Amino acid sequence: MELNYTAADEAFRAEIRTWLNAHLPADLQAKVLGHRRLSKQEFLSWHKTVAAKGWVAPGWPVEWGGTGWTPTQKHIFDEECAGAGTPQIMPFGIAMVGPVIMRFGNEGQKRHYLPRILDGTDWWCQGYSEPGSGSDLASLKTRAERRGDKYIVNGQKTWTTLAQHADMIFCLVRTDPEVKKQEGISFLLINMKSPGITVRPIVTMDEDAEVNEVFFDNVEVPVENLIGEENKGWTYAKYLLGHERTGIARVGGSKRELAFLKSVAAEQQVDGKSLMQDMRFASKVADLEIELMALEMTVLRVVSAESHAAAQGKGGPGPEASLLKVKGTEVQQRLTELMVEAIGPRALPFHVDRFDDPAKGEAIDPLAAYYFNYRKTSIYGGSNEIQKNIMTQMILGL
Amino acid sequence: MELNYTAADEAFRAEIRTWLNAHLPADLQAKVLGHRRLSKQEFLSWHKTVAAKGWVAPGWPVEWGGTGWTPTQKHIFDEECAGAGTPQIMPFGIAMVGPVIMRFGNEGQKRHYLPRILDGTDWWCQGYSEPGSGSDLASLKTRAERRGDKYIVNGQKTWTTLAQHADMIFCLVRTDPEVKKQEGISFLLINMKSPGITVRPIVTMDEDAEVNEVFFDNVEVPVENLIGEENKGWTYAKYLLGHERTGIARVGGSKRELAFLKSVAAEQQVDGKSLMQDMRFASKVADLEIELMALEMTVLRVVSAESHAAAQGKGGPGPEASLLKVKGTEVQQRLTELMVEAIGPRALPFHVDRFDDPAKGEAIDPLAAYYFNYRKTSIYGGSNEIQKNIMTQMILGL
Amino acid sequence: MDFAFSEEQTQLRDALRRYLSQQYTFEARKKIIHGSGTSDAAWTGLAELGLMGVPVPEPYGGFSGTGVDMLVVMEELGRGLVVEPYFATAVMGAAFIKHGGSDAHKTALLPNVADGSLKLACALTEKQSRHELHNVMLSGTAQGNDARRSAAPDNGFSLNGSKTVVLHGAQADKLIVSARTSGAARDKSGITVFVVDKAAAGVTVHDYRTIDGMRAADVTLVNVGVGRDAVLGKVDEGYALIERVAQVGVAALCAEAVGCMAAINEQTIEYLKTRKQFGVVIGKFQSLQHRAAEMFMEFEQARSLAYLASVKVDSADAGERARAIHAAKVRAGRAIRFVGQSAIQMHGGMGMTDELAVSHFFKRISMIEATLGDTDHHLAAFAALGSVQENTTAQAAALTA
Amino acid sequence: MDFAFSEEQTQLRDALRRYLSQQYTFEARKKIIHGSGTSDAAWTGLAELGLMGVPVPEPYGGFSGTGVDMLVVMEELGRGLVVEPYFATAVMGAAFIKHGGSDAHKTALLPNVADGSLKLACALTEKQSRHELHNVMLSGTAQGNDARRSAAPDNGFSLNGSKTVVLHGAQADKLIVSARTSGAARDKSGITVFVVDKAAAGVTVHDYRTIDGMRAADVTLVNVGVGRDAVLGKVDEGYALIERVAQVGVAALCAEAVGCMAAINEQTIEYLKTRKQFGVVIGKFQSLQHRAAEMFMEFEQARSLAYLASVKVDSADAGERARAIHAAKVRAGRAIRFVGQSAIQMHGGMGMTDELAVSHFFKRISMIEATLGDTDHHLAAFAALGSVQENTTAQAAALTA
């Protein structure tokens, strides 16, 4: 057991940090650190900066533009980016559809799509959930009927994150309604500019428009946009959900937010002293910090197990990802709770007009909205109840 | 809404308190307050004292020896007894089988058993649970076969509280194995001295012998010991479980234990001051005290609703009893947790030889055992999971 | 010992619930919060129901309502998710006049509160004060020669400073302002409470939305001159008045939270009964059932102490009053967190949307938690009250001695 | 960054687990705890496996084991619910000698620890001290003329006072005793640590069971004379040594708790898979499934920090060491409460019995929580360390400045 980073790891960290210091624009960083809302252009410009450096897809094979980093290096990279306050690299292309295309796509699909994902040409979104199919994803109803060399797609997807920015959507569609629900699903890539697609924003309780409904009205999709075999889409979907999950705990981001929480609390007064000197509040922060320390160690244990497995030619993470998802979101949500607690009645003002610019207003302005927004984390990506079901079955065998 | 007691209520309280002061023996009180273990004789002598005063069965009709008190008066009586530290009046006769006999028994049964319950001649125990039938009580297997004017009983009961002291046991037995499980159950009264009954103590984790296994090997029971009709026992069993539940919250006892907790904590030092001055510990106590205040109000709301219902000739409490059971046991268990926390490493010594006498050792000696013992409260009498099921179905309609 | 509501209370509740369900629908409310923030029509409607008069003493045109009457009103306003300035005006504002006003104040102001023609707002919180209402820096300076003092009238004060998160500050006609007239920022003495005309020279009000659909304002006072007759209570001794009024406010907020949570629980149960996944309604999943049962229990426990607070808020016994108020806010706070978060979680993605009422209820109760002292604030205050053990017997008391 | 155990560690673990599962069965253990409290045979068996030598430096006949080696041992002893005086002797006792002993102490004592022929116990806690190991009143008085002082040898001390809950005090050959040699009861300076022969005149030991099946003792010292050569560390500066040794102890207890919780979780899952109610195994009920999943998560989180503590306990960086130790004990404490209580609850009545191992595990981990500082104690200590933010980038750090 060796829980210190090697000198090589530390050198790697220094390299990342130096590069981030030089290339992360201060205004962009200020927005991220200040919990402000980012534009498409801002996400994209950062994606392109990282892509130009060759670091945008550390999880990909080197031949397709990956980095060849060890699991530990990937972890360090994630942590440094999160700590620095970089915009998130959207996962829909790099972490989701990319690996599916790589694994199950044909050569033409790989050559066409992968470089465009890498360099940011295509912004992808995810067409999984439907109004009637949330936790029970396999019950999806969006139909794709083959007509000649086209599929005709009809139906609706929902909770489609940032679909308003997207060029492409990967969709689970029903191609055979007669068989068992998991067996009639296919995996289609659809151009968002296709006639018949309508995107309608869903306003969330923080009055943001992160998610959308996407409607398909006789949308024509070329058959060459099918991934793998028809009616085998459920296999690919599950692969996608199980791929690259250690980042799911978001330890780096939570460490940054913990520091932010402390800085906010330190400025609040209670009983004539700083709120961080208040035993009750300090205890809550300490408990949370300890939970986060434990989570970081748990992530690193999984990373370490991955490294050993990789060394023996075995693959990917198991159901531990469910643990990381649940604990990760609990920590994230708790951080936002304590931020709101810290600022007391000043949580109330809703200066939504200030949310695009950290120069407007104060650092505390977006915090209540951030709290409400983050309730999503225990719902999306397989709700925490679903994650507990997975642990129950896969780990505990109940 | 009138949340103060009336002058008449207060006078009633004073009467109870005066009587308790005069009649509760100091040594017995010291044992109860000191969490010591009581002998059969001690329970019984207190039962007889209260019975002699005519207060041992406040829930019974006056004609059978009840008090004619209002629900509020009954609540006050419970509270005063608990606060004073009287031994518990065993519920198996007074609160359980008594009401069943009164409601479903024949005249002969009433005239024979009820006075003996009242004056303590018969110590009753409860034959409900079996090794295979806990939460799923109706799956019980103990057989009673009719042979002439007798039932022949074979099988086993378990978790039988204080069966070692008992003269009589009321039993759910299976008289018809062919029908739906709820429909083949009968309610039998069995003399514990009958040949073929064996009582085997179950040692609990605090090394106490509160509960037992009771084995029936061809035990002969006269048919006149059947309550009501054969195979209708499940109805009577449910009646019993739903009867007289507001006491289930044990608010009076918890108030006494809260005072005890504070007295123990006040004597502990941390950081040069009393543990009750420690913000972390004081917060936990305050939270618990508030929960108990809320529970008391909730109980009084149920009592008040009962009074209104009684005034309109309607009967008893509903599924709110489940709420009182769950919250009541949570408070009781939390009290024991904080007592153990308060005394730190001094929780470890297990001076079980001192548990029968408060003059031996110190007040803190039995506290860890008390904590472990009280884990039972969320298990017995319908586990808290079962109570949540009941609330789900009966109140929420899910 | 009787928890039943009187016939009048039941009638008031029914009338109010009927009015709100017909006139103050979720859609109507949405228009209001995205419009000017309050509705004159609704205000008139509520006034016609007699709501503004409930807390006002009879001699001044009201009904001399008790804390329990206010509970009935606030519970329904919570259930209806009403964003009108009732709390600012009829709860807090009226309480300031009632507990601190002179006869002249009462005669001049209370009848107008009762008939709905006067709106009040309370400017107590400052940027640095968090939950401590004695943390006051806005200065009240007696008359004198320098620039500031010269603004004060004879025997009066000049007010200078800023308040923040003044609930419905911009919608009010008059502001009730706490000011530092002597001592240092956190002294409990040296605070004076003034009634200030919002239209007075030197008063600037910046109106904004709050995240729970209400309105609040930042209020700045520059050389605002007020006379002695603007003082509520006594000069330098205003903090006791503020504390007393805050208790009235806390009791009302707990009642409002109970109304909100009643609605949340109903909506969640309804959702569990209709939403299907895996071929069954999700209310069949035991983990959700048990969470719903826990929401029910949290709600009932919070309700019990909201009732207690509504009765004890009128008590003359300061210790008993404080104990009930602090306990109710703590218990409400715990319930708010659990009930609100659980409701959103069990609604899944739908719970995150602006479209369903449940998210609006969640936001409102969350902000109630942050108003007039949060859970920790009241927990600390409760713990500081010491071990007042009511109704324990002499024997048990002896143990603690 | 590698969490794998070495081949030697894996071998040690396997050998120990095999030994315990064969020789130290639940029934065998029960006989021990209801008999003399410890087993000579087991002690010999463990010694033969080399267990006592793990923490002892090689020059003194041991294996110079690391914190991780001790983790491996303690986790297995936890899993086996071993009641032998390993913690008192090889963890705490050996650490006192290693960190505070002179060469003479080491030479005289450590080889005997390593071969199992010497048992130690640490007498630190007093009735009033609760979790504060600097709360020491047992007096160490330098030589002098009065009755007490005359008992002290030349240049030595006379010890007078009482200790309580001395783990395995009666089973030990020598006691390591903290004494007040100057200052007042709660001063951190003025404490001196002594090695005292249990057989010395004036030493009385009262042996008793502990509720978790161990043994402890009340120890009374009356005019016990000890020489300068009995001092571990420096006179009046013993508290730093005690703190250092307590860290070693905490790391070991966390590892033991992890072993216990691993067993508890396995037993609970097994019970859920076999116990039937309502015609199905109860593991099919979702509320129990989710609780089991939460137990799993609690366990894994506690395990992660037990690992960290086992590595950092050897660190020369005092801040880093304290941070990891406090965090591990807090996290273990949270897990202990949840895992233990849940296991009993899900076992139903069977969980309450002395018959199943699960109740014994529950008692043991509960007492671990109360040993060497409880959750609140370490939480306070952790919070007091301040915001040491490791591995955050310069940008984030700037925010907190």
Features:
A: 398 residues, alpha+beta, four-stranded antiparallel β-sheet, 10 strands, C: 401 residues, Butyryl-Coa Dehydrogenase, subunit A, domain 1, Butyryl-CoA Dehydrogenase, subunit A, domain 2, Butyryl-CoA Dehydrogenase, subunit A, domain 3, 3 domains, four-stranded mixed β-sheet, 12 helices, 14% strand, globular, disordered C terminus
Q: What is the count of distinct domains of chain C?
A: 3
In terms of quaternary structure, the protein is heterotetramer
State the fourth-level CATH superfamily of the largest domain in chain C: Butyryl-CoA Dehydrogenase, subunit A, domain 3
The number of strands of chain C is: 10
Pick out the low-confidence regions of chain C: 387-401
Describe the structure.
The complex is a heterotetramer, with 2 copies of chain A (398 residues) and 2 copies of chain C (401 residues). Chain A is built from 12 helices and 10 strands. A 4-stranded mixed β-sheet of chain A has the order 1-4-5-8. The relative contact order of chain A is 0.10. In chain A, helix 1 runs parallel beside helix 4, helix 10 runs antiparallel to helix 11 and helix 10 runs antiparallel to helix 12. Chain A has helices at residues 7-23, 26-33, 40-53, 71-84, 91-104, 107-119, 233-242, 251-267, 279-311, 320-343, 367-373, 384-395, and strands at 124-127, 143-147, 150-157, 168-174, 185-191, 197-202, 211-222, 226-227, 269-270, 273-274. Chain C is of the alpha+beta class. Chain C has 3 domains: 7-114, Orthogonal Bundle (Butyryl-Coa Dehydrogenase, subunit A, domain 1); 120-236, Butyryl-CoA Dehydrogenase, subunit A, domain 2; 241-394, Up-down Bundle (Butyryl-CoA Dehydrogenase, subunit A, domain 3), CATH 1.20.140.10. Chain C has helices at 7-23, 26-34, 40-48, 67-79, 86-100, 103-114, 238-274, 286-312, 318-347, 357-369, 375-384, 394-400; strands spanning 120-123, 139-142, 157-167, 174-180, 191-197, 203-209, 215-226, 231-232, 276-277, 280-281. In chain C, the strands form 3 sheets. A 4-stranded mixed β-sheet of chain C has the order 1-4-5-8. A 4-stranded antiparallel β-sheet of chain C has the order 2-3-7-6, with no helix packed on it. Chain C has a two-stranded antiparallel sheet with strand order 9-10. In chain C, helix 4 packs antiparallel against helix 8 (286-312), helix 7 (238-274) packs parallel to helix 9 (318-347) and helix 7 (238-274) packs antiparallel against helix 10 (357-369).
